[in-house]
Amino acid sequence: MLKRRLVPVLFLMDGWMVRSQDFSEHQFIGDPVGHVERMVDWDVDELIVLDIGKGEMSFEHHRQDYRNKPVRTLLEFIHRISVECRIPLTFGGRIRGVEDIRERIRNGADKVSINAMLGGAPDEVSRAAHIFGSQAIVASIDFRQTDAGAKVFMDHGKKMLDASPRDWARRAEDLGAGEILLNAIDRDGAARGYDLSVIQDVVDAVAIPVIACGGAGHQRHFLQCFEETGASAVAAGNIFHFTENAYPRAKKFLTRTRDDIRTFSMPRAA
Amino acid sequence: MKLALVDYGIGNVMSVANALHRVGADTEVVRDGDALTALNPDCIVMPGVGAVGEALSLLRERGLDEALNRFVIDQSVSYLGICVGMQVMASVCEEFGEHRGLGWIPGKVTRLVPEGSPLRLPHVGWNTISVAGEADFLAGLDGEHFYFVHSYGVECPGEFVAARSEYGQPFIAAVQHGHMKGVQFHPEKSSRAGEALLRGFVESAALARV
Asked: Which of A108, A134, A178 sits opposite B15 (nearest CB)?
């Protein structure tokens, strides 16, 4: 049976890992390499890393006393984490075209998450899907509830488009995306649960898998999203970074009532 | 042991190289038939993503089809095909038109679920496998989870089926024809179960060499 995925998301800003709220407030958490290692050790189903900074990404201010050599650039960072990453790795942020995708995949990303390209360079999305395969292209859609219903926002939640998440998801699917990553901006960091109706609306609109993100504050929110929507995966950031052993505990909680969650049976390598 | 990792130009060959490295195998990436011939490998791993027709035309463009046939068919060098690397082993491939496959296994590549099915494609995520028959490289992996990303699958006679999985209906998750093996899922991204599979393949290939 195909299992539904529980996916941690890491947000990066200027080389640091951050906690995000409403796409606008960001609290620095620390070194992303160590966090990724912890996720891999937890044997998470999949990992999404989103670079939400705006300036040129640099890791140069980073401490130099790593047991491994210091990581200086975004591509070095992807390369560094992919060596140990025995699970699927999606990388998003600052991707403007096919060449940006090629660089990230060449350095070890399995999939890329694209956002601005859907609006600004739709032809490049199709070209990328043709070159790398649809399975490598995850369309990231950010939305916010407005007086006129749920609307898609671009540019890190600043620019509103006259499009519903449903229409935008259809467009992404038509352009060749293989998955949708649906982000509720107004639930980002809010810990009040997923926006179930928008998620289901998008699930109904497309035939590709949908990953729901934004709003998880408690493990029961994951369960609720699986029970009340057809999302193929639920994703979350903060809950996994601030609560002790949150990921394994959430898995345990979900498997108590559901049989469509992956459990671990292989013994750990010595 | 010389392990050739075939890179026909698409996909994340590095993920597979990293995974093989984690299980103690060093790889040599080859990008065309001449490089494969010059390496004279003891075993061959071919990962692949994307469309099978595109993969086949790139293999032919780079002279890899002939070199692969020479090593795998004429010299019985161990082969592991991953995802599209498994699909090219079939004789006929139907994705964006009909293509002639390498034909190592009588079978065809078809859409995983029929048009109009409510099941989502691509089939993405973790699914369990049921091992069929005696596939040495899958020993101890019955019931384990593996990571899949694909919309097409291989259909072939039961004697070549090494494992099945289920998405709406059963489909073939792995094939074996003697020293030729193929997996529809991605062992390089399937955590510890994937590493166990790769370790098993490399070990059996090393034994076959002696």
From this structure: A108
Q: Quickly state the pLDDT bin for B50 (edges 50, 70, 90).
A: confident
- Domain of residue A154 covers 5-257
Q: Is residue A270 part of a domain?
A: no
Q: What mean pLDDT value characterizes chain B?
A: 93
Residue A115, in any domain of the structure: yes
What are the pLDDT digits (tens) for A21-78?
777 878 887 788 888 888 999 999 999 999 988 766 566 545 555 555 677 788 888 8
User: Within 10 Å of residue A192's Cβ, how many Cβ atoms?
Assistant: 12
pLDDT tens digits along B11-21: 678 899 999 99
The reply to whether A168 falls in a domain is yes
Nearest by CB to residue A269, choosing from B126, B189, B192, is: B192
Residue B189 · residue A88 · CB < 8 Å: yes
Domains of chain B: 3-209 (3.40.50.880)
Please report the ipTM that was assigned to this predicted complex: 0.90
Residues of B whose CB is below 8 A from A2: 123, 125-127, 148, 166-167
Confidence of residue A270 (pLDDT cuts 50, 70, 90): very low
Total structural domains in chain A?
A: 1
Q: Is residue A193 part of a domain?
A: yes
The owner of tokens 């498994």 is: B86
Whether the upstream peptide bond of residue B122 has omega within 30° of 0, thus cis, is: yes
* CATH number of the domain that residue A222 is part of: 3.20.20.70
